[in-house]
Amino acid sequence: MKRAKFIKKTLLGTLGLGLIGGMYSWQIEPFWLEFVHKKMPIKNLPENLIGKKLIQISDIHVGNRFNYQYIIDSFAKAKTYNPDFVVYTGDFVDYDDEEQFSQLKEVFKHVVKGKLGTAGILGNHDYGHDWSDQNVATTITSILENTGVKILGNDAFNFNGLHIIGLDDFWGLNFDPKKIMKKHNPENANIVLCHNPDVCDLDVWHNYKGWILAGHTHGGQVKPPFLNPPILPVKNKKYAAGEIDLNDGRTLYINRALGNLYQVRFNVRPEITVFKLSKKS
User: Fold this and answer.
1) Phi, psi dihedral angles at 158 (to 5 degrees)
2) Is the model's pLDDT at 2 over the cut of 80?
3) Which one of 38, 100, 166, 240 has the lowest number of neighbouring Cβ atoms within 10 Å?
């Protein structure tokens, strides 16, 4: 009897822990936002930009798979940091149909903008089904630009001394990084926005030295302790999350995503990144 009671208690305890873990990964961690603070040393940074704040927001995934009021609430929290620059690194929607356009308009009534500049790039989900619908990408671009987010597709813009280069999505219809990277001026204070970090391994960079801000991976959304995430949508499995020295003058930062492709996270909290700019010697 003692052995039977022990087995029963063990099974009930295991089941209870499983239920608690399941509730946590479904209802708590997907909405437990973390503001990650990092230093960002940039070559040729103008003196008046030293100490300024740049916020990165990535992979919002506005759609029907989770309550996007959470995104609106997160935007309100981000605004309290009073950012000088804000960059969005793709996947604004989780596209099913045109309903996402009205949802995106609703969310971006609360857009986070920088005092000195606001830029963004598209991700693969912003190209609709099979990443192949130009009309979806064009409509999303128009919605965002009407709220003050300048979308850069293989293009660059000088935001008050900070030159932001934006690459179109690796899996989308308009990927052409050589178009802009061969024209980049190394004498400027440059950063690059690139949704999919696999692009870092392509021969397209033309000796670029500096920061690359990416998203796409969500950090895997589920990461067993002490192990790598079992699912990552990248070829290079080193590109999961966080700061990575590419050992050639480039520094990659992969944001863990604000939104959720599926409403489950474990050991990979959603993230907004707050960078403090400094001058790199």
Assistant:
1) -90, 110
2) no
3) 38
